[in-house]
Design a protein that fits this description.
Blueprint (H helix, E strand, L loop, with lengths): L3 H4 L7 H11 L7 E3 L14 E5 L2 H10 L4 E4 L2 H7 L4 E6 L11 H12 L11 H10 L2 E12 L8 H11 E9 L11 E9 L5 E7 L13 E4 H6 L11 H11 L4 E3 H4 E5 L6 H4 E2 L1 H7 L6 E5 L9 E2 L1 H9 L5 E3 L9 H7 L2 H6 L3 H4 L15 E4 L1 E2 L5 E4 L4 E2 L3 E6 L5 H8 L2 H10 L1 E4 L2 E3 L2 H6 L1 E3 L7 H17 L4
Parallel strand pairs: 1-2, 1-4, 2-3, 4-5, 6-8, 13-19, 14-18
Antiparallel strand pairs: 5-7, 6-7, 8-9, 10-23, 11-20, 12-15, 13-15, 16-18, 16-20, 17-22, 21-22
Helix pairs in contact: 4-5, 5-6, 6-7, 9-20, 18-20
């Protein structure tokens, strides 16, 4: 069961971070400060003229106790903002980080409406914090500033685009500070600091500071990269590549334009595998299949997770190892099987089968027991990786779940040639630039991101200096995602 802290996106801020952000935005004691998700009041205790609101009644009561001078409201911030006439001199806080799956209903619709007032039009996949920021900006006086803790997703998420564009349209200065060491060491989520100054102005650039660790500061760091909105747009509306050494990124771009360098989308397609809706029922161990005497023609050997992928290829020897270990790698694949064999019908009618057919995805299928999108790919590509994504040939003609990508190669491309290019420093750096950190040191490569990865076909020889520069840039990218 998900606890209220995680459900409400509550991850509380160290006092030194709260004091720093309040210093950035409050220039005199008479200014009115807003915290739109005040939690236990960590930001409110930093300023005597503060207003906070929180949806969690217990947290709001704690905030009142800690900052008795503050005006603390309990309720939905977006409803409160819609009805409020007051405007504030400053805002600071740590907005709740709630994934779109949990951020729904009337609250989400109000959030979308409030964000749209400043021209930020988010789709339904945006996390809550982005809408909190835009709605808060709409409550500021002309010339006001705001400073927030934000997830590092602002550097790569699709919904960062409408957020940053809206901030640049309404503030004269938009400044982000990223930290190589985690701001919150106990969380898998990386966080940055955002400072926006002079509401009512506009800017054509994003300022990005990079620091090793957080230290209390009287003002945002002055040693910054100035990134034009045009450059940010050319980078796919992603800031992550601007964290890397400029020389290494410049070399990458030069090599990516060289003859023979292809996008992954030119040589093949990486798509998600199948979704059963009831994994434990549809995936059987060899001993279970023998127990139920299921015919061989209704079973397919499958790759269920990236950990199954070895070095280079999945072949018959690999499969024999899985079978000998009695791993649950046999997919019950009933597409086109009519009539159903008696032993299959008996398995479908077990208690486990009765539970499986009530699962959401199974209920919506006709018939419920036919798993869709079962494909036999040419290769597998790891979806979430540690050191680097793996591209593994499918010599055994297995299928795969959506935990790995199914790769179909275009005609006239050979998997061995593609794998050789995949190991090149250019391609490894491209995976870091096009993919994004997931937390815990992992690199995630979505299908659309994989399509943009560059491969040198064939890999061109590099000078020792170029090789060293690419490898050091790769190491820096891994350091930023905390891969040890």
């Amino acid at each position: 069961m998900v606890g209220p802290q995680k459900r409400l996106g509550q991850f509380f801020t160290p006092p030194e971070v709260a004091r720093t952000l309040v210093r950035w935005v409050v220039t005199n004691p008479k200014q009115r400060l807003l915290d739109p998700s005040c939690g236990d009041g960590e930001f409110l205790v930093c300023h005597r003229r503060a207003v906070g609101i929180d949806v969690d009644g217990d947290r709001a009561r704690t905030a009142r106790q800690r900052a008795p001078w503050a005006l603390v409201h309990e309720g939905d911030f977006f409803l409160w903002a819609r009805e409020l006439n007051e405007r504030f001199d400053a805002a600071a806080g740590n907005p709740p980080f709630i994934r779109y799956q949990s951020f729904s209903g009337e609250t989400r619709e109000r959030a979308l409406a409030e964000a749209a007032k400043l021209g930020a039009r988010f789709n339904g996949l945006a996390s809550s914090w982005a809408r909190f920021l835009v709605a808060t900006a709409s409550l500021l006086r002309s010339g006001a500033s705001m400073a927030f803790v934000v997830p590092a997703e602002i550097g790569h998420a699709a919904y960062a685009e409408p957020l940053i564009k809206a901030l640049c349209r309404h503030f004269s200065r938009v400044h982000l500070t990223a930290f190589r060491e985690k701001l919150f060491p106990d969380l898998s989520e990386d966080c940055w600091l955002l400072h926006c100054a002079d509401f009512g102005g506009s800017t054509q650039q994003i300022l990005l500071a990079t620091l090793d660790t957080f230290q209390p500061m009287e003002a945002p760091p002055q040693n910054v990269k100035s990134i034009s909105l045009r450059s940010w747009q050319s980078a796919g509306h992603r800031l992550r590549r601007f964290l890397l050494p400029e020389q290494g990124v410049a070399l990458y771009h030069a090599l990516a334009q060289a003859p023979g360098v292809r996008k992954f989308s030119d040589i093949g397609h990486a798509g998600i595998g199948y979704v059963t809706g009831a994994n434990d029922f549809f995936h059987l161990r060899p001993t279970e299949a023998q127990h139920w005497r299921l015919p061989e023609n209704v079973l397919r050997v499958t790759v269920r997770k990236g950990e199954q992928l070895g070095a280079g290829r999945v072949d018959q020897q690999t499969v024999r190892g899985w079978m000998a270990n009695d791993e649950p790698v046999l997919l019950l694949n009933l597409r086109g099987v009519e009539p159903l064999p008696q032993r299959v019908r008996e398995y479908l009618d077990t208690d486990a089968g009765q539970r499986a057919r009530q699962a959401d995805k199974c209920r919506r299928r006709r018939p419920w027991y036919v798993v869709p999108d079962v494909k036999t790919p040419d290769a597998f590509l790891s979806y979430m990786s540690g050191r680097a994504p793996s591209l593994v040939a499918n010599d055994a003609r297995c299928v795969c779940t959506n935990a790995v990508h199914a790769v179909q190669l275009a005609p006239d491309f050979d998997i061995v040639e593609i794998q050789r290019a995949w190991q090149s420093p250019l391609c490894q750096l491209s995976c870091e630039i096009e993919g994004h950190p997931l937390g815990g040191g992992m690199l995630k490569l979505e299908p659309g991101e994989a399509a943009e990865v560059r491969l040198p076909l064939p890999p061109a020889p590099l000078s020792h200096a170029d090789q060293a520069l690419l490898e050091s840039t790769i190491s820096e990218a891994r350091r930023w995602r905390h891969y040890a």
